């Protein structure tokens, strides 16, 4: 604003408008702070990523398709977390290791 109006009614109108704007801004800040706090609580409550994954195909009766390291970005949607021993057994029994994350190397299983 370059210049304020000289008369009292318009100055009061501007004052009311600015108070409303300030109220809206404060509400937006409160909402953003609440959302940020919720996101932080969600990050803290998130369970840790599993160490090992078995990827299954469409038919759950078939053997797993691959063994993955827990944070592998190439793991599909049909995975289940497993412990180290289960991952080792799966590799020894012939379930292929993911070529991207190489769980066989991480588990110390050599071809």
Overview of this protein structure:
The chain is mostly helical and 111 residues long. It folds into two domains: 1-46; 52-106, no CATH class. The chain has helices spanning 8-45, 84-92, 103-106, and strands at 52-55, 66-69, 79-82. Strands 2-1-3 form a three-stranded antiparallel β-sheet. The longest helix is centred in the N-terminal third of the chain and has 38 residues, at 8-45.
Rg, Å, rounded: 29 Å
How many structural domains in the coordinates?
A: 2
- Overall structural class, as computed from helix and strand content, comes to mainly alpha
Name the shape in a single word.
Answer: rod-shaped
Number of strands: 3
Order of helices and strands: HEEEHH
> Mean pLDDT across all residues, rounded?
92
- Helix tally? 3
Main β-sheet: number of strands, strand sense, barrel status? 3 strands, antiparallel
Strand order of the largest sheet: 2-1-3
Helix content: 40-55%
Q: Note the beta-strand portion.
A: 5-15%
Which regions are unreliable across 5 or more consecutive residues at pLDDT < 50? none
> What is the rounded distance between the termini?
75 Å
Layout: helices, strands, pairs:
Layout: H1 8-45, E1 52-55, E2 66-69, E3 79-82, H2 84-92, H3 103-106
Antiparallel strand pairs: 1-2, 1-3
């Amino acid at each position: 604003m370059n210049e304020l109006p000289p008369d009292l009614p318009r100055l009061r109108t501007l004052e009311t408008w600015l108070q409303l704007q300030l109220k809206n801004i404060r509400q937006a800040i409160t909402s953003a702070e609440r959302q940020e706090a919720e996101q932080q609580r969600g990050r803290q409550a998130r369970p840790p990523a599993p160490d090992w994954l078995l990827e299954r195909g469409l038919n759950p009766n078939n053997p797993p398709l691959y063994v993955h390291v827990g944070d592998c970005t190439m793991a599909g949607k049909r995975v289940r977390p497993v412990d180290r021993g289960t991952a080792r057994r799966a590799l020894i029994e012939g379930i292929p290791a993911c070529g991207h994350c190489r769980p066989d190397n991480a588990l110390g299983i050599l071809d």
